[in-house]
Q: What sequence folds into this?
């Protein structure tokens, strides 16, 4: 469990510098340069993600169950995860109306994903993982939107076709992940037995 918690704290910590330490982050970028900062940021992110996933996998071998969720919560999780996939894709398709409306669709996707998974998973490692991501994503979304308003940043919508692309790619990715990759990578089959 310690390995998992260390990876989670470092991963969410490095991703929280704009929330809690904007000045410190700006000073590091000024001193190091943008590319070296991004390099260090990426290395720490990838390494902590690997440690988090590895630790989570081991933490699930010796579970401490806080609650047992009813079976229907799996369906709610799937319902929340579908728009999460669409929003995740919308973050990378330039000019979607979703990005214009939300500003940060990847963070909104993380909120939906984490909330759904927190609802249907009651082991302590699940609560730490999904609860940690939920709190982080809500905080980051709120501060990012406030920063956009303060600096006058807007995200233009370039046409409905961009949203259609995001929706189609998001649905295809959701189906692929839910029907195959989730079982292979996570060891849990979201649909069926």
A:
């Amino acid at each position: 469990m310690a390995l998992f918690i260390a990876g989670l704290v470092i991963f969410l910590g490095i991703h929280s510098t704009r929330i809690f330490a904007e000045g410190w982050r700006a000073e590091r970028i000024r001193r190091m340069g943008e590319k070296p900062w991004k390099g260090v940021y990426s290395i720490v992110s990838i390494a902590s993600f690997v440690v988090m996933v590895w630790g989570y996998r081991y933490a699930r071998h010796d579970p401490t169950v806080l609650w047992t969720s009813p079976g229907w919560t799996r369906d709610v999780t799937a319902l929340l995860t579908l728009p999460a996939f669409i929003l995740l894709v919308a973050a990378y398709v330039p000019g979607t109306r979703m990005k214009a409306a939300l500003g940060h669709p990847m963070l909104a996707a993380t909120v939906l994903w984490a909330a759904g998974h927190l609802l249907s998973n009651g082991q302590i490692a699940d609560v730490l993982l999904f609860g940690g991501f939920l709190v982080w994503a809500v905080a980051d979304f709120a501060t990012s939107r406030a920063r956009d308003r303060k600096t006058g940043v807007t995200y233009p919508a370039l046409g409905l076709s961009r949203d259609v692309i995001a929706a189609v790619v998001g649905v295809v990715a959701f189906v692929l992940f839910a029907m195959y990759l989730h079982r292979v990578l996570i060891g849990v089959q979201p649909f069926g037995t």
Remarks:
- The chain has a mean pLDDT of 93.
